[in-house]
Amino acid sequence: MSIYRAKTKQEVYLTSLLYDSIDDNNFRAVRSLLCEKGANPNFIVPTKGISPFHLAVGIDDCDFALKVTCLILEFGGDPNVRSEDGLTPVHIASAWNRLDILKLLMRCGGDAELRDANWMTPVQYALKENLPDCVDLLRDHLPDKYEAMHEDLRDCYQFSFDKLLVNNGNLIGEYEIDEETARSINADRPLLDLVNQPEPDHTKLVLNWFETHVDEAKVDETFTVNRPNSTDEDFVSYESSADESDVVLNPKTLNSTIKKTYKKKRKIERQPNPRSSTPQTSPKSCMVERNPQCSSESGIQTLPCSGNSLSSVKPPETSSDYMTCSGNSILNQNILAIYDASKSLFASDESCNKSCESYEASFVTVSEVYKYEDEQEGIVLYEKRSIDIGRCSESVLTGSISSKMSQLPDRLCYDFSALRQALLELGYPAGPVTSTTRSVYLKKLRELQSRGGQAAVVAATPEDVERVYSRELRKTLRNGDWTSNLDHYKQLETTMMEQFRDPSKKWVEGRAKASFAYLLLDPRKTNNLREEADLKKAWERFLAAIFYVGKGKRNRPFQHLYEARRKWDKPNNTTSTEAKEVRILDIWRAGRGVICLHVFQNIMPVEAYTREAAMISALGLRNLSNKDAGKYYGVACQWSDRDKEKLGAYLLHKAMNIFLNECGSEIYPENLN
Amino acid sequence: MSSTSQKHRNFIAEPMGDKPVTDLAGVGGVLGERLVTAGFDKAYVVLGQFLVLKKNQELFKEWMKDTCMANSKQASDCWQCLNDWCEEFL
Asked: Which InterPro entries match (chain B) (predicted)?
């Protein structure tokens, strides 16, 4: 959205002047402002909600409008500038049937598909106003855009087969595409289109390879028979680097599993990017045909090995650097090379002789790595598809099915009630599972299961979770200088107090002014609150420290502490169920004491109840260890929640000031007798 | 805490009535269209989803991401918007 707003007073001034000049149909002034003063026609005029450009397009005098629009476009007018309602000049020109202007705008890059705040496009406005000429004009500009977008989509990523990984547990063979081969293959198939390529070809290829390996007898046949279906017909030459010189083993792990990492390089791929390959075809393809039997290229990389101290061991039968084979035999040769190599390695390592026998051909995993490359965004994605070899001999089809993306969660079989049950069992308070919520809950379930159900425990201890206070209290936290204007808050408090003074009214628990409200604070949170210079931070910390709000007479607050003390004395019986006792014991265990802050002394019980309730409303019951939300009396009952929260925020603010002036003495278990 | 957008303030200023889904903070043209495609054509339908997910921020955001590929900011804005609206009017 291109909404432009002026940043300096100068800009606002110039833009406003421009707006007024257009309004006055004063062409000379407009020209001088645009040409000489450099007024920006795209800025929104603050009081109007539109830019001078919008006004110019829509002004009554059509000739003047056209002239000014030309001028504005010449001096940096953006035909897609948004008004505060999301309207662009194109919208206005369409709705007002300004054909000439519309043509001009469209030629200067106007977008006929932008939507305004009402979700309307210029075309829709023209249709609504029944302006066929405008509609035609706008429609003329749509298909171009569609094609352009399509073009983008087609070009937006390159997809290529990157490498093939073969892992038998001890050895990892990695087969990569050789640049030259890839290019030459491309050259052979200049018009190859990514979209038309049946994707599972690689899979087939790999599976074929395994068929050949599993059943060595009919190697060559199977391979050639299956291959015509694939698009890889030009796989005339395979390059292989069956080089075992890079075998690495870690002598320190002799008696445990040996990890040998191995890298083979072989090219089985083509790069399906038609564009890059088209120009020079013949020379490269010739190269393939004439490819010498042995290439002297050395491009072997070693995969990172997990051991620290590595010694490189040369296996007995080291073959020549690179073997280049043509035709299908390479497939056999490669897989056999892995076996041979592993056997010889095992043989050379005495402690591993036994595991040698257990090592069987059936234990091999193959995965294909595909590469998606988006040059525009600079992103490269690697997709690894595992192929289930257990099934590969059955048929190519099942094989390619089993190579589906990654692991689909097996718990997709949960139905609605089973899913909810599973979540509840893990202690997660799941809501109704419906078709729209199912996938979300499935994810949650997977997450919970992977965490071993710990999440439920975490969620149950509110101290660590960030507290979300009531709306009014959050406002005060956002706005640091809310204390500068407390009149409204004071007014609320006065209204609340005054009603209790009427002697003719009777109140619950009598009129004796012996009550007060109190807060229990966690000293670990208030720590040196008095030295906190930033009032806003002090306010935050003060609120965070409150874990109980109460009302009482005499030494009522101490009752909580006595109860907790009783639990404290019997440490083996500390399974307290009350949240506030848990918290008190927790504070004591941390070597600190509870701070009991008495506020609003000598008030009537009902007033104390009301103040308590207001503070609970502001803090939010869920953030406290209180059980009840408290009760309002008198006028406050009828207040809106916002007013109640406001009063609560104000009372808490007063409480903080009291706290800052108090000594904040902590009460330890030994202080209670 | 960051301040809220004009769209957010507009939305929570009044009952939502029949407002389109694009009136929700964090939901613009693109997300709006995706939500409409998924059957969430009015703000109140999204509110229903929000309530069915028990106002849970995490779940709601996850749902937004799944349904209309919202990014984290958009999903949080939308959640905040509905949550504030509920505090006001529910």
From this structure: BAF (IPR051387), BAF_prot (IPR004122), BAF_sf (IPR036617)
The verdict on a CB contact (< 8 Å) between B22 and A437 is no
Asked if B52 and A437 come within 8 Å (Cβ–Cβ), the reply is yes
Contact predicate A291/A185, CB 8 Å: no
Structure token digits, residue A24: 């006055």
Sort B29 into a burial class: Cβ within 10 Å, 0-12 / 13-18 / 19+. Answer: middle
Whole-model pTM?
A: 0.35
Nearest to A630 by CA among A549, A555, A553: A549
Identify the residue whose tokens are 């109980």.
A548
Nearest CA in chain A to B62: A440
**Which residues in B lie closer than 8 A to residue A441 (C-beta atoms)?**
59
A191, A509, B4 from A537: Cα distances, Å: 66, 39, 21
pLDDT given at position B21: 93
DSSP classification of residue B5 = P
What Rg, from alpha-carbon coordinates, does chain B have?
Answer: 11
A237-241 vs A172-176, strand pairing mode: unpaired
Per-residue confidence (pLDDT) for residue A651, from 0 to 100? 92
Q: DSSP code of A158? A: E
> B9, B33, B41, B54: best mutation site toward chain A, by most A Cβ within 10 Å?
B54
CA B87 to chain centre: 14
Residue A452 buriedness (CB in 10 A; 0-12 / 13-18 / 19+): exposed
Measured in Å, how far apart are chain A's first and last C-alpha atoms? 69
- Taking only the tens place, the pLDDT of each residue in A237-259 is 333 333 333 333 344 333 333 33
Indicate if the pLDDT at residue A529 is higher than 90. Answer: no
Q: Which two tokens stand for residue A59?
A: 């002004």
The per-residue pLDDT for range A100-112, each reduced to its tens digit, is 888 888 888 888 8
Alpha carbon distance A82, A519 (integer Å) = 53
Q: Which amino acid is at A58?
A: G
ipTM of the complex: 0.81
Return the structure tokens found at A366: 């193959």
Contact partners, residue B79, CB within 8 Å, separation at least 6: B50, B57, B60, B61, B64
